[in-house]
Amino acid sequence: MGKGGRKKGPKTTDRKPKVRDVFVGQPFEGLAAEPELIALREFVPSATAKLTLSGSDKKVTLGTVLPMAAAAFVRSDGEAFIGMQVQTRSSDISRDLGRALKWVLDAKPGDVLAVPDTLSEPGEGERLQDLLVAEAELEVELHQDFAWWLPEDADASGEVALSLERANSAIMPTERLGTGSYWVLAGEKAHLRWVRPEPENLLLQALARLSAAGEIGLGEGSRYAGSFRAHGLLVPVWDLDTEAHAREWADGAAQLGTRLDGALKSLDTEPLNAAERRSRDGLIGRQLTLR
């Protein structure tokens, strides 16, 4: 009995449970396509890749940017897409993409998902790691524009046409040189951005070893510019001579990859010497972080 002889009423149990929106620093960990997913999320302008779903033979295409920055949509011809570069998201990109993927599997032609529902309580099996074949790589197809938003021979109109025009005008020339490795012409500068799968500390040591030996470049006209962190991985960046086309850097990038693999392997038996440690400290001083 409470004060005054009144009975306490029953506790209410119909409150909506609070959702813990915990930041996931490496959202694509465990997927073989992790470097490509990060590249498509952060700096590749127009590209598509077919997804390999686990336990389903349905066809879904991953795109960098969708019409009106949608999270997912189904074209009028029935082809389903989810978008990597969405404006709003929770603190787990993999969960948001997983929700968009689950939505599009049951959507109909013409349906559009503006943003995934990131405020409702997370459900089981909604992350990309739950829905994709973990070992599957992405076969990325680059595009010079966003015409892939529409079925073949279709004409854009209304908001889609305006969105298509704006998106096309923002594309920077981009070429893929290898897994997670992209040449981009950004105004008056050209760069190589290379998403690497190794743990940051090991990669920095390997880069330091190459730097101390004068082997960190791609050849004449290239310069190591620094690196940035994106979704748990390190992305080294090189400045390149703008007069050279992307294909002219392909051999240099491949040779650099071979040297980098060798440097990574050598760390198992040979710790960094004093000069290499100084190089590592210098490389660390040229880092940024992208969330």
Automatic annotation (TrEMBL):
This is DUF5926 domain-containing protein. InterPro entries: DUF5926 (IPR045970). Residues 27-291 form the DUF5926 domain. It comes from Amycolatopsis xylanica.
